[in-house]
Amino acid sequence: MELLSPAGNYDKFLTALDFGADAVYFAGQAFGLRAFAGNFSIDQIKAACQEAHKRGKKVYVTVNIIAKDEDFNGLKEYLQSLSDANVDAVIVADIGIIRFIRKNFPNMEIHVSTQANITNTESALFFADMGVKRVVLARELSLAQVKKIATVLKERGVEVECFVHGAMCISYSGRCLLSNYLACRDANHGECVQACRWRYFVREEKRDSELEVEEDNRGTYIFNSKDMCMIQHLKELQDAGVASLKIEGRMKSEYYVACVTNAYRKAIDMLPKKAGDEFVTELEKTSHRLFSTGFYFKEAEENLDSSSPVQTHEFVGVVKDCQNGVATIEQRNFLKEDDEVEVLSPDDKVFNKTFKITNMKNKDGESIEKANMAQMLFTCECDLSLNKGDYLRKKI
């Protein structure tokens, strides 16, 4: 099975590759659904394709807005630039854009976005008839329904991709009007403000006081879902015929991309053995809401306690060099002398190993007690053979 990771910018793209992704998906600076991610210029898309293909990996670019007529202005030129960059596929939701691509770029590989809400076999076959290579099924399907669709599509040479980790939307696979209604930002054009995460109150018409909205006397976040985590059920997805496992998170940090990609890479590589609880513990070290298995085995669960993400560890630095027992670190959060840090690395020899920050020096070789300036470089003693690009984290 392919491991497909998100990237909101070029640095996150490289992180995804370094930590084991088989393919990376991201948006260009037009026609994508994450307007507030860093996104990629055409030159960056070309560079990403060259780097990925050099490593035997793939690049998928989202063209997944729900389009209006005016959105087709400039689309042909944009698609031509993606074709010239040698992207491996485009991820599309709108049937008009799919038709446009099939007409003007018949050799371009199309993956149907989860925004298309494919929840049944007939819908999947409709897109197969349009000549697509892959469908990303709606998150609202059970595992049994996924298997049924995948079995039928296999006969047509069409692959199935499913989400396995990350945020869940309260609306059918992201088709939400709440953001547009409350904040005039259209989720279907990449501007979602995540209004479902807000805290809500009720006000009676003739009173000034507000009444807090409660559900089961536990909280107020009535629209707020738990995050999906399927790391302990990859064999079931494999048996269901899923070809690609997708991680949500183009708006997430590079540390999130590294941590989640690394965990799923290791879990896939140990199949058919099931990932143990230590894999869930690993995923809890980066930002997340309470985990669930989404709709795969039962109805998805609300997260009634809080909309705030939690994590057990904090990302504090990136290794830039390590030689002769001295590590050069780029700071990402506050660090001080004698702090114990843990290593996040694709290299099993140092993954999850810990060491103490000692003998700190700034870039001028002067002794310091703390690293408190954003992205400052410093050195410290380290008895581990760290790799350039390894991440350091500290327990909160």
Could you explain the architecture of this structure?
The chain is of the alpha/beta class and 396 residues long. It has two domains: 2-171 and 224-292, TIM Barrel; 313-395, Translation factors (Elongation Factor Tu (Ef-tu), domain 3). Helices cover 25% and strands 23% of the residues. It contains ten helices and 21 strands. The chain has helices spanning 10-18, 42-54, 75-84, 95-104, 121-129, 143-154, 178-183, 234-239, 254-269, 277-283; strands spanning 2-6, 23-27, 58-63, 89-92, 110-112, 134-136, 159-166, 201-203, 210-212, 227-229, 244-247, 291-292, 313-323, 326-331, 335-336, 340-344, 354-356, 358-362, 370-371, 377-381, 391-395. Strands 1-2-3-4-5-6-7-11 form an eight-stranded parallel beta barrel, surrounded by six helices. α1 (10-18) packs parallel to α9 (254-269) and α5 packs parallel to α6 (143-154). The chain is globular, with a radius of gyration of 22 Å. Mean pLDDT is 89; it is low at 216-220.
